[in-house]
Amino acid sequence: MTDLPMIRLASVDSTQAFLRRHPELGFCAVLADRQTEGRGRQGNRWESAAGAGLWLSAALPPLPGVAPGVVMQRAMTAAARVLDPEGRVLGLKWPNDLVAWKDGRLRKLGGILGEQVGGRLILGLGVNLTAAPEIPGRAIPPGCLGDLGLDIPPVPDLALHISKFWKNLEEDLQPVFRWPGEGDPLRWEDGQGTCLGWEPDGRLKVATATGVRRLSAGEVTGVGGQV
Predict the structure, then answer these.
(1) DSSP 8-state class, residue 39
(2) In the chain, at which end, N or C, are there fewer CB atoms within 10 A of the end residue's CB?
(3) Is 141 helix (H, G, I), strand (E, B) or coil?
(4) Terminal CA-CA length for the chain
(5) What is the largest CA-CA distance in the chain?
């Protein structure tokens, strides 16, 4: 796999917004030491302090025939392979969060965004490497890679390796583990049920009191459970 051209910025509002503003850059990756307006799913703010994490976006060719939810899951699984090359601790929380178990509790280490703008698929990744923000009241609290005993290579090396994987998302990448798994109880902002499995199109199949539902990433937020 060849490298994407990589732009490194000391500070930016967000790497995702930077690529949206600059379609003339074509297919490339952007790494920031610090983001001032990092965003997660559903517009949530993502803390992006200098030196604390990996803040990376890449503009890639679209993947026709692959469901958007699956693209996000493969992209986050690719990041997990780079961050945890021995496949020891990092997994995927539906729909596309990077998570790990610590002290018997699931922790969220990273998130990913994806959007198609013109003829480009723009992926944006944020991962807590050496520190995690304090966010009270979260069913799945933040964590960082440094708390898991994993080696943390230089951030530019991580960014280059992840962007290489992202150029080949046609491959059906599978995570070390998925949460929720079949039989796990879960809840979201307007419902609850039991996981029946992850669908091939990236949706989550859930048994509820009123029947089987298939949840999509854009339909629900705040999926949690007895974790």
Answers:
(1) B
(2) N
(3) coil
(4) 38
(5) 51
Q: Please give the structure tokens belonging to residue 11.
A: 């500070």
Which amino acid type is present at position 175? Answer: P
CB 145 within 8 A of CB 129: yes
Supply the pLDDT for residue 39: 60
Distance CA 24, CA 202 (A): 31
Closest by Cα among 172, 211, 220 to 73: 172
Q: Comparing 6-179 with 185-225, is the CATH topology the same?
A: no
The C-alpha atoms of residue 143 and residue 146 are separated, in whole angstroms, by 9
Assign a CATH topology to domain 6-179.
BirA Bifunctional Protein; domain 2 (3.30.930)
**What would be the CATH architecture of the domain defined by 185-225?**
Roll (2.30)
CA-nearest of 111, 96, 97, 126 to 32 is: 126
- Give the pairing type, strands 178-179 and 120-128: unpaired
Domain range list for the chain: 6-179, 185-225
Q: What is the pTM of this model?
A: 0.90
Residue 85 tokens, joined: 């090359």
Q: In which residue are the tokens 């509820």 written?
A: 208
Q: What is the pLDDT of residues 30-41, one digit of tens each?
A: 999 998 876 654
Q: What are phi and psi of 155, to 5 degrees?
A: -55, -45
